[in-house]
Design a protein that fits this description.
The chain is of the alpha+beta class. The protein contains five helices and six strands, in the order H-E-E-H-H-H-E-E-E-E-H. The chain has one domain.
């Protein structure tokens, strides 16, 4: 895993120093709790090629979910090159008023944007991207996450980067477990 991230960071350095053309429309991301601030993220052709390599020759849904984790992590690292997202702390702990902080609304929006990008590239063969999901506990505590479904089995999963501080991979857990109040 560490080797994978080192290779990605090298690709990022190349994409900063070269004028690689973006392959798709810029991704619309947000931050500052409740998507109060927006930003656009363009993905260079070098970063796109690196991401595509994550999804080459996958043989099952379990491996694809693992690669989704790596891709979402890498896309956040890429987004932080031109934004303050790297200030975010996991689960809103110690965020204070940091520029770049994200709550679960921001994370679920951004994670879903990343997942839709991966799907639009044709890289997801075992999962489809679904609408953001919500869980409510104690009548007022709500939490949101992005949502994927395994195509062959119908098993539903959440991809949730809110729990961890910036730069760490998101958790991917079954939707039913997450709805019960899962927290790593």
């Amino acid at each position: 895993m560490r080797h994978l991230l080192c290779r990605f960071l090298f690709v990022l350095m190349l994409s900063v120093t070269t004028a690689g053309a973006a392959h798709a429309e810029p991704l619309q991301l947000c931050y500052d709790y409740g998507c109060a601030k927006q930003l656009e993220m363009e993905i260079s052709s070098e970063a796109r090629d690196w991401l595509a390599g994550l999804f080459d020759d996958l043989h099952d849904a379990t491996i694809e979910r693992s690669q989704i984790q790596h891709a979402v992590q890498a896309l956040y690292l890429l987004a932080a090159q031109d934004s303050p997202l790297w200030h975010d702390k996991g689960a809103d702990r110690f965020d204070n008023d940091a520029d770049g902080r994200m709550d679960c609304i921001d994370h679920s929006h951004n994670d879903s944007a990343f997942l839709h990008y991966l799907a639009a590239q044709g890289w997801l063969h075992y999962h489809r991207v679904d609408d953001i999901v919500r869980r409510t506990r104690y009548l007022v505590a709500q939490h949101f996450a992005s949502h994927i479904t395994e195509q062959d089995t119908g098993q539903e999963w959440v991809v949730d980067s809110w729990f961890n501080s910036f730069g760490e991979p998101p958790v991917v857990v079954p939707l039913a477990l997450w709805k019960e109040g899962f927290s790593p």
